[in-house]
Every structure is written in structure tokens, then in C-alpha cells.
Design goal:
The complex is a heterodimer. Chain A has twelve helices and 16 strands. Chain A is of the alpha+beta class. By secondary structure, chain B is an alpha+beta fold. Chain B has helices spanning 2-17, 19-55, 76-85, 116-122, 146-152, 191-198, 215-228, 238-290, 295-333, 343-358, 360-363, 370-375, and strands at 61-64, 74-75, 91-104, 107-114, 127-130, 141-145, 159-164, 167-178, 186-190, 203-204, 206-211, 233-236. The chains are: A alpha+beta, B alpha+beta.
């Protein structure tokens, strides 16, 4: 009997129910969309922060003290330790290998440079690195990386060198000094070796590279007489903002804590994993980038959650208002039911069942609509659609039920206390 | 005159009669207005605060002698005083640097001389173990970079003797800094001490400047400095600027769309209440029409009602929003967000707009036929 009354109420006057369901759907769509975007925003912004460049610096553990002024190391070439470039594929085998967005090794060589066609020889620096180099990974695949990942704000007029050719890119200040343009050839001499490079572009970085020539690592290795070696490595990793837990010394952690730390992409745990994989290295966070990113991300995440809660609250209010007004309409129905002998409990149960059903329908519709809305928002703001999260469906359904019930509870309470007679009379 | 007072009297009665319905609509409007006003307040201040955070990521302008010039140093009394004389308000900090190649025993090390009070403002990511060097006149203390301290076997309190050419200097280590940058390999001290050790008194190697503001303002400051410091290279540091622009843009987009969505939801709440109200009012409208009320006059009454509701909701919402914004500001950004009164007219305008749009169901009452209503349908 109960079920018959409930199902009848849906077939008899569907218009008002449709309105409630539509309001529920819209409200839940907004709730779903904001939740999806909020869950995604941390990851999206972290990726944006990778445009700040590398956040990890890898150097030989047994190195002597670098003598750096303005980024230029004045140590004699023989001093200090070097690392083997053949090991670099192992970077893509650590636990957080998918968070290693890119890396680039560097080898600096002081050289004598002369523009072809000119007799004038100048002293300059050649920085050997990769632009877009394919690194073989022990599991059989290959990973293409280079300074495009670690220094994305470097701007080249022309094109970058190809890692397998005798090409190079000249820094803006050096190019101006030696009157170089893309297409010119330069002769590079160092330690008895000589190379003739074609300048494929002029780079301006705002740093010491403006006074140097950037060339493939292999050429620098040959000029320095250090085949297969590099001096320092920049790594760009996608990390989670650091907190008090991540700053602790892993040696002081219990097994459970260590697992939690290891399995979170903190910059400290990623550094630790790199140190385990590459022999003889010291890994340091480039705090300027890592700290700043961490602080700003934490603030923005906080703001996003507030915004999400605000949207959820507004959705709840809208749905509640709609529920409230539709229940207020049904006073005559309630009066009739009471006059026919229904107890307050039965009337209440009937309405609750109705609202719950509406909430389910509205919730599912809202989730589907919300997914579409989230895609539009994600693409509009970040250029990338957020991933579909099925866990949100039960959450949204529960939210819809709670809100629909709360919204109808107050007017329901008031309406069920109403005297049936005046209501039946038409007042 | 009589017409106006009649209008107002009916309006007042309308507002009082359907108190229940209108309260729901008012709540929807007020909460929408509160959230929007809070977000607008926070957004304007949040952007400023986030820009400030980006400023603590280091200098964004570097002034140095032209590259390739053999003259490795420039006069400091000239440059730093000239920069200060320009009185550019956006400059947050100005830090000169002079680098000296020195020896500690047989170990070569770079000594960097600077002004620590300025450095503290620019480089928030430096991690310090021990004490800072407090004043510019402190010629006895130094900070040592983490790697340099390890190589030279230094700790807070130990003393280090540095030799460069004919000059000697003895310093006590006040603290160890970990910066993740070149400073980790250096010993840092006050500019005067470095100048004395190098025998280059009155000179600096480069000047780092931290400027706050939008990319356009930073561009302008760079040009002002370049124009006023001929013979020197004024270079923007591009690394931070690019990322900053993108990220702030994204955040702005997020907040804008959330406000739009919340307004849509407020509209929904108001629509629902007004639709119910319209049902209730059919008889009143039928009666008004039978008594000679024209449709435009009736519509004007309803619109005035919605407008009043919107204005009241907007004002209440703004006040609540200010409290919310303050709470958000302290909770997330640790800064007191002051109420911005330019948000008030925006909030009221938006809320009134939503209220008028939501009053749409009432316009359908214009088509009511008095005869049907009076008959009791």
C-alpha cells in the first residue's frame, strides 16, 4: 500500500516532482564539478610549477668545493669528481619514476672559440648538455629529455641543436661579441681536440649561458677528454608540498612511517630514491624552486577547498529551498491524508521515501551533468580535462539525499501539524 | 503623489504577507551574495599575497657591469645611492654582492659580501642553522654555506681565516645556511669585510633587486633603472616571471568560474521560491486586475519587490562576506584581509540582477484572467 501511494504520487502530478529533480540535478552537478576540479587542482598547479624548471641538483658526492661566481665554476678542469652518464637511465626506475618529468646533465669546458672566416680567437665556455636526448631505460624503453624540461624559460632564436650533430647554440652576449648568427660556423679548441660547430640558434637565458656556447654533451665530453661523463645534473620532479613529516630524518622513522614517507612524492623522498639508484651522488633540493612552489601550492589548495565548500553550501541551499517550497505546496495533500487517518509518522515516511527517490534520480543525473561541467571547467581553466572519479558518485548521492531531506524536514514538520479541516476547506 | 504612496503601501504589504516564502528567497540571495562577496574580497587580496609569495622566490632584476667588459667591478656609492634616489615604491629589497676568491688554509673558497638585512627579505627559502648576521656593521661574523662548512670543517662558533693576495681577515661563524644554490659553496659576510679583503673598497660586482607588482610594472621599473644607470646592464630574471603569470591567471580563472556557478545556484533558489510565490499570488493578481490594475503596474510592483529583496540580500550578504573573507584570510594566508568597499556595489548589483531574473515566474502572472480566478479556479 505504501509503495502504491508513493508510485502513484509520481505518476499523478509529475510536473512538480520533475522540477525538484531538476533542481537537485543542477545543484548536484555544480557540487560534482567543483569537487572534481578541486581534487585535480593540486596536481594541475604542480605541473604548472614545473615551468619554474628543475627542483633537484645532483652532484658527485666526493666533489671538491665548487668555486662559483655568477654560475661559472672557476675550478681547474682536473679538480673535482665526475659522474657517469650511462647511469642516468636508472632515474626512470625509481618508485616515483612517473614524477620525474625530465633531467639534463651538464659538463662545462673552457674553450678557445673562433668564428669561421675570422682569425680572432676568444676565450669562452662551452656547456655540454642535452636538448632532446633519448635515454635508454633499463626496462627496455627510452625516455626523451633535456634542458627543455629543466630550463623551460630559455628562449632560442632559431632552433636548438640536434644531440647527434656537430651543432651548437650561442648565448646572446657571446653572439653579439663575436658577431654570430644562425648558420655561422665556429671552430672550438680545447685540450688538443677541435670541433667545428654550426650555430643553429641564439639563446637568451638571463644567466651565464648568455656568455657561452651550448653544445651536445658528447662534444663537451670529447673536448674535455672525459668520455661518458658529466659534472652536475638538474632534475625536474613533480612533488607534493613539504610538511613537518617530510622534513624528518628517515633513519628516525618507524617502518610504517617510512613506508608512508617513501610512498609520498615529497622532494625529500624522491631525493632519497635518486640517491639510492645513482652511485656516488649527492642530491639536493633547489630550495628556491621547491620551497616557493610548496608554499604557494599549500595556500592555493587551501583557497580551492574553501571555494569548493562554498559551492557545495550554495548547492545545498538551492536544493533545500526547492525542496522546501515544493513541500509547502502539498499542504492540502497532507491534510487529506491526515483526515483519512494517516498518522504523522506515516505521512512523514511517505514524504521521506519520495524525497529519497527524487534525490537518487537527481543525484545520478547531477553526477553525469557535473562530469560534463567539470570537463568544460577543466579545459577552460587548465586546458586539460580532469579525470573521472567514480568515488564521487556515492558521495554526491549521499549529499543529495541529506540535502533534500533537510530541506523538506522543516516545512514538513510544520505542515504535518496543521489541522486537516481548514486545509481541506481550501484555506 | 497618492499613486506613489499607494504603490509603496502595496509593496510593503506584499513584502509582509508572504513572509515565509520571501524568507527562503532572501536566504538564497544573502548566502549567494555572502559567498560572492567573500570570494571577491579574498581574490583581490589573494592575488596580491600570492604575488608577494612569488617575490620571496628571489630577485627579479639583476644589475651588473656589461658582460665581456674587463672592468669587473662597479662603484657602490654611485649605484646603490642612485637606485635609492630614484625612490621607486615597488622595490622590495636591494642587495649588492661582491665576490672574492680567497683561501682558507690551502682550500680555495669564494667569499661573498652582501647586506644581510636585504638578503633576508628576498631569499625566504634559505634554511639557517645557528644565528643570522644582524647588522651591516658587523665585521666579525659570517654565514657559511652548507657544503663549504662540511669541506672546511666549520660549525657555528668556529673561526675561519681567509687570505686573498696581501689581505687577511678573521671571521667567526654565526650560522650555517642551506640554500640549494650557489651560496651553499660560499662564505657570506658583510659587504665591507669582503671589500676590505679584496682591496676593492667602494665597489660591488652586481646588485640584485626584488620588485613587486604585475609583469607590466616590473617591466616599467626595469626600464626606469636602465635609463637612469647608463653603462650598466639591467636584466630581468625570467625564470619566475613566466610561471607566476600563468599560475595567477589560472587561479583567477578558478575563482571567476566558481563565483559564476554560485550565482547560478542562488538564481535557482530564488526561482524556486518565486515560482511558489506565483502560485500563491494568483488570486491577488486576479483581484487587482478586476479592480482596474493594469498589467505594467502590477509587474512594476513585483519587480520592485524583487529588487528590494535583492538589495537587502546584497547588503546583508556583503557584511557576512566580509566576516567570511577575514576568516579565510587569516586561516589560509595568515594576513588580515581588509574589507574592500568597491565590492559592495558589485555584490548588490549582482544580487539584484539575480533577484530580478528569479522573479521571472511572477511575470507569468500577467497573463492571469481575473474572471477565472474570481470564479475560484
Amino acid at each position: 500500500m505504501f509503495l502504491r501511494i508513493v508510485s502513484d504520487s509520481f505518476t499523478r502530478k509529475p510536473r512538480r516532482k520533475v522540477l525538484t529533480a531538476a533542481a537537485l540535478a543542477l545543484g548536484m552537478a555544480v557540487a560534482t564539478a567543483t569537487l572534481e576540479v578541486a581534487l585535480d587542482v593540486g596536481d594541475r598547479l604542480a605541473r604548472e610549477f614545473r615551468s619554474l624548471g628543475a627542483n633537484l641538483l645532483v652532484t658527485p658526492a666526493s666533489d671538491t668545493l665548487p668555486l662559483e661566481i655568477g654560475g661559472v665554476d672557476y675550478r681547474p678542469v682536473d679538480a673535482g669528481a665526475y659522474l657517469s652518464a650511462g647511469d642516468l637511465g636508472k632515474l626512470k626506475t625509481i618508485f616515483w619514476r612517473n614524477n620525474i618529468m625530465g633531467f639534463a646533465p651538464f659538463l662545462d669546458v673552457p674553450v678557445a672559440i673562433a668564428s669561421s672566416g675570422s682569425q680572432e680567437i676568444s676565450d669562452a665556455e662551452l656547456i655540454g648538455t642535452w636538448y632532446s636526448h633519448s635515454v635508454p631505460v633499463p626496462d627496455g624503453s627510452a625516455f626523451t629529455t633535456g634542458v627543455s624540461a629543466t630550463d623551460p624559460w630559455w628562449h632560442v632564436d632559431g632552433r636548438w641543436f640536434s644531440d647527434t650533430s656537430e651543432e651548437g647554440v650561442a648565448g646572446a652576449a657571446l653572439a653579439q661579441r663575436l658577431n654570430l648568427r644562425a648558420g655561422n660556423k665556429v671552430k672550438i679548441d680545447a685540450g688538443g681536440h677541435s670541433h667545428t660547430l654550426t650555430i643553429t640558434g641564439i639563446v637568451s637565458t638571463g644567466g651565464r649561458e648568455d656568455n657561452s656556447v651550448l653544445a651536445p654533451l658528447a662534444i663537451a665530453q670529447d673536448l674535455a677528454g672525459r668520455p661518458g661523463q658529466y659534472r652536475r645534473l638538474l632534475v625536474s620532479a613533480l612533488t607534493k608540498p613539504a610538511d613537518a613529516f617530510s622534513e624528518r630524518d628517515p633513519a628516525t622513522m618507524t617502518a610504517v612511517e617510512y613506508d608512508r614517507w617513501y610512498c609520498s612524492p615529497y622532494i625529500s623522498s624522491i631525493s632519497h630514491q635518486i640517491q639510492q639508484q645513482l652511485p656516488g651522488v649527492e642530491v639536493r633540493a633547489i630550495r628556491q624552486v621547491a620551497e616557493g612552489e610548496g608554499r604557494i601550492l599549500t595556500r592555493v589548495s587551501g583557497l580551492m577547498w574553501i571555494v569548493t565548500i562554498a559551492a557545495l553550501f550554495a548547492a545545498a541551499l538551492a536544493v533545500g529551498a526547492t525542496s522546501a517550497t515544493t513541500v509547502l505546496e502539498r499542504r492540502s495533500e497532507i491534510g487529506l491524508m491526515k483526515a483519512l487517518g494517516a498518522s504523522r509518522r506515516a505521512v512523514g515516511a511517505f514524504f521521506v521515501a519520495e524525497q529519497l527517490f527524487l534525490a537518487m534520480v537527481g543525484g545520478v543525473l547531477g553526477y553525469a551533468l557535473g562530469f560534463v561541467l567539470a570537463r568544460a571547467l577543466g579545459i577552460g581553466i587548465f586546458g586539460v580535462a580532469p579525470a573521472l572519479r567514480w568515488i564521487l558518485l556515492p558521495i554526491v548521492l549521499v549529499l543529495a539525499a541529506v540535502v533534500a531531506l533537510l530541506g523538506s524536514l522543516l516545512p514538513l514538520g510544520r505542515a504535518s501539524r496543521v489541522d486537516p479541516a481548514p486545509v481541506l476547506r481550501g484555506e | 503623489m497618492a499613486r506613489r504612496s499607494m504603490f509603496l503601501r502595496i509593496l510593503w504589504k506584499l513584502l509582509g504577507a508572504s513572509r515565509g516564502r520571501l524568507t527562503v528567497a532572501l536566504i538564497a540571495l544573502t548566502s549567494g551574495a555572502a559567498v560572492c562577496s567573500a570570494l571577491l574580497n579574498v581574490n583581490l587580496d589573494a592575488e596580491r599575497k600570492l604575488t608577494q609569495e612569488f617575490r620571496t622566490l628571489g630577485a627579479n632584476i639583476v644589475i651588473a657591469p656589461p658582460t665581456g667588459s674587463s672592468e669587473a667591478a662597479l662603484a657602490d656609492a654611485g649605484v646603490l645611492d642612485r637606485i635609492a634616489a630614484l625612490r621607486i615604491p615597488q622595490i622590495v629589497a636591494t642587495a649588492p654582492y661582491l665576490y672574492v676568491a680567497a683561501n682558507s688554509g690551502s682550500q680555495p673558497v669564494i667569499l661573498a659580501g652582501t647586506w644581510f638585512d636585504q638578503v633576508a627579505k628576498m631569499n625566504s627559502w634559505w634554511k639557517l642553522e645557528g644565528g643570522w648576521v644582524s647588522s651591516r656593521d658587523d665585521h666579525e661574523h659570517c654565514l657559511v654555506g652548507f657544503t663549504a662548512a662540511r669541506q672546511l670543517g666549520l660549525a657555528p662558533g668556529s673561526s675561519v681565516h681567509l687570505r686573498s693576495g696581501d689581505h687577511n681577515i678573521s671571521l667567526t661563524v654565526a650560522g650555517i645556511v642551506t640554500t640549494g644554490g650557489a651560496e651553499d659553496n660560499q662564505i657570506l659576510t658583510n659587504l665591507d669585510s669582503a671589500q676590505a679583503l679584496a682591496g676593492l673598497s667602494g665597489r660591488v660586482g652586481l646588485v640584485q633587486i626584488s620588485v613587486s607588482g604585475t609583469p607590466a610594472e616590473i617591466e616599467r621599473v626595469t626600464r626606469t633603472l636602465a635609463d637612469n644607470l647608463p653603462g650598466l646592464e639591467v636584466r630581468p630574471v625570467r625564470q619566475i616571471a613566466a610561471a607566476e603569470g600563468t599560475i595567477l591567471g589560472r587561479i583567477r580563472g578558478l575563482i571567476f568560474w566558481t563565483i559564476a556557478l554560485i550565482l547560478v545556484l542562488s538564481l535557482l533558489g530564488v526561482l524556486a521560491s518565486m515560482a511558489a510565490l506565483a502560485m500563491e499570488r494568483r488570486r491577488d493578481v486576479g483581484l487587482m486586475k478586476a479592480l482596474g490594475g493594469t498589467v505594467p503596474r502590477i509587474m512594476r510592483l513585483f519587480l520592485a519587490e524583487a529588487g528590494t529583496l535583492g538589495a537587502v540580500g546584497g547588503m546583508l550578504g556583503f557584511l557576512i562576506g566580509v566576516v567570511l573573507a577575514r576568516w579565510i584570510g587569516e586561516g589560509i594566508f595568515g594576513v588580515v584581509i581588509s574589507a574592500r568597499f568597491e565590492v559592495l556595489p558589485i555584490t548588490i548589483a549582482l544580487t539584484v540582477g539575480v533577484a530580478l531574473a528569479g522573479a521571472f515566474p511572477l511575470r507569468l502572472l500577467g497573463r492571469v484572467r481575473p474572471a477565472d480566478i474570481l470564479r475560484g479556479e
